[in-house]
Amino acid sequence: MSRYFIKLAYNGTNYNGWQVQDNTPNTIQQVLEEKLAMLLKETIEVTGCGRTDTGVHARAYYAHFTCRNTDLSENTTHWVYKLNTVLPPDISIFSIHKVKDEAHARFDAKSRTYNYYLHQHKNPFIENLSWHQYGFIDFELMNKACEILMETSDFTSFSKVNTQTKTNICYVSEASWIQLSETEWCFIITADRFLRNMVRAIVGTLLMVGRNKITLADFKKIIETKNRNNAGTSAPAHALFLTDIKYPEDTFL
Q: Which of the residues are catalytic?
C-alpha cells in the first residue's frame, strides 16, 4: 500500500462543502472518492487538508489517500489526465505525489492562506466570486485592525459555536487588504490553523471597522470578549478561496 497527496482546485458553488456528512450529498470529497475508486478499482478514502463550507472555493487544496496501485507514482501525468477526464468541470486535479506512509494532509500542514474578494462596482464577470459592497470603505483603517489580528491568539469571537474543536487558539502570520484594481480588493490571511467560519466572521467584522460602525478599540474589545455574538455578521461564502497550504519539505518523496 502506498500513500499519495493529491493537489486539486474546485469551484464550490454547486457543492455542500468539502466533507462527506450524513444526509448531505454532493460534496467535493464524495465526488473525488467515487472517481478515484472507479479508476483504481478499489475502495478509496480521501482525507482533506481542511473543511471548506458550502459555496467556498479552493485554488490549492491537498488531500491524501492510500491505495494498492503502484503505477500512480510511476506515471502520475497519465493518472492526473485520467482523473480530470472523469471529474466534473468545476473540480480540477493538478498533481499526485507519493508521500511518507505517515503523512497527513490535515495535521502536517504548517500554514494555510485564504483570500476573500470584494468589489465596489457592479461587475457581471465576478459577481459569483466576489462580494459586491457599495459605498465608502476605509481600507487603511481595516488594515490597522488587521494588525490587531496578528497580535491575537484566541479567536473564539470569530468561530462557530458548539464545534468539536478542542482549542480556539490560532496564530495569524499575515492579514491585510490589498487593492487589485480601482474597484477590487482582496483580504489575505495566513495562519497555522483556522476555525469554522473564522475568515468570513473576521471579514464581516472588519467591514464594520471600515464603515466606521465600530472603532479599533471596539474591534479589540470584541476579540477580548470571546463571544461570537459580539462580532459582525459572517461575509458570504461565494467570495472565499483557500489559496495556499505549506507542508514540511520532507513530506513529499
A: 53
